[in-house]
């Protein structure tokens, strides 16, 4: 990720590129904002169009920095072209499109609850594809951090869990989370190429696979309106949860592995709650603090070697 900076300033990012916990925390922060942006865009920007502009824009941003690496790494990419295409379609195109689609039908509480199961899906895919089992510490950390997420989402009232109803959006998002659980595991099998080569190829491939759906959507859904909120949402999703977040996430998984990185997904709803406090005027309460502490403890326990 350091090659995004000019040569004289690359050294100052070298430290960040080797801090997996900070990188994964930033990823969760950016993805939390993506959920808010996606929810605000629901009904104003069609989901496939939003996903296509997100990844097409991110590809245009990264391509100038990645071009020389892509040329050099092309022989290695070609050897595992099938895997690289699968990663692009599954981890980039399918997951994010289904996420935006789900946000048209479900509420934020439901999405955040379902997202807390992300580390479990990563663990299942790790076992199926790599034969990697969860350690006791990782399993304990996932359980503790999931409890923290539930405390926050249910406002400390566990009885509220029984009153939550699930709809079509919840089913769509659950499938999306199952798909995303495969993404970090598959990236561990990628060819030995530069991080920018991997990022630009996968986001470009993810955007390309959406072209037929975008054309279909143009004839079946109202076109996007060029309003200020829509443009701001598009700028955000192109830069932060796409370009920067995936650079950070891919590097973090490379440094500590998929299972140890997975519990950081629990920070997404935590950051979402914090954003609601500061952006929507919600009050900080005791259950927020208890939930934050549990999530942090769980992430620390699970991320240890």
Quickly list its features.
about 300 residues; mainly alpha; 14 helices; about 75% helix; globular
State the end-to-end CA separation: 24 Å
Number of E strands: 0
Strand content: under 5%
General shape: globular
> Share of helix among residues?
over 70%
Q: If you compute it from the alpha carbons, what radius of gyration comes out, rounded to the nearest whole angstrom?
A: 19 Å
Number of helices: 14
Largest sheet: none
Indicate the multimeric state. Answer: single chain
State the order of secondary-structure elements, H for helix, E for strand: HHHHHHHHHHHHHH
Tell me, rounded to a whole number, the average pLDDT: 83
Unreliable segments (pLDDT under 50, ≥5 consecutive)? none
What is the structural class? Answer: mainly alpha
Structure overview:
This protein has 305 residues and is an all-alpha fold. It has a domain of 208 residues. It contains 14 helices and no strands. The chain is globular and about 55 Å long.
């Amino acid at each position: 990720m350091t090659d995004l900076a000019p040569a004289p300033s690359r050294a100052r990012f070298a430290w960040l590129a080797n801090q997996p916990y900070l990188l994964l925390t930033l990823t969760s922060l950016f993805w939390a904002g993506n959920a808010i942006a996606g929810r605000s865009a629901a009904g104003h920007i069609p989901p496939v169009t939003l996903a296509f502009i997100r990844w097409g824009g991110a590809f245009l941003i990264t391509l100038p920095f990645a071009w020389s690496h892509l040329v050099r790494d092309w022989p290695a990419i070609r050897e595992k072209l099938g895997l690289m295409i699968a990663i692009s379609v599954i981890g980039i195109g399918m997951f994010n499109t289904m996420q935006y689609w789900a946000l048209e039908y479900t509420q934020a509480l439901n999405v955040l609850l379902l997202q807390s199961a992300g580390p479990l899906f990563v663990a299942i895919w790790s076992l199926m594809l790599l034969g990697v089992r969860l350690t006791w510490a990782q399993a304990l950390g996932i359980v503790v951090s999931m409890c923290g997420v539930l405390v926050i989402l249910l406002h400390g009232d566990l009885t509220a869990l029984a009153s939550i109803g699930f709809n079509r959006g919840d089913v769509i998002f659950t499938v999306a989370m199952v798909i995303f659980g495969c993404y970090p595991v598959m990236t561990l099998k990628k060819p030995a190429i530069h991080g920018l080569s991997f990022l630009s190829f996968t986001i470009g491939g993810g955007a390309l696979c959406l072209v037929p759906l975008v054309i279909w959507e143009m004839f079946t859904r109202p076109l996007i309106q060029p309003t200020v909120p829509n443009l701001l949402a598009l700028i955000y999703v192109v830069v932060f949860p796409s370009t920067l977040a995936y650079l950070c996430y891919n590097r973090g998984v490379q440094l500590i592995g998929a299972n140890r990185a997975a519990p950081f997904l629990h920070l997404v709803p935590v950051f979402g709650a914090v954003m609601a406090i500061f952006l929507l005027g919600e009050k900080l309460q005791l259950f927020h603090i208890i939930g934050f502490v549990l999530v942090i403890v769980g992430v620390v326990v699970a991320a240890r070697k």
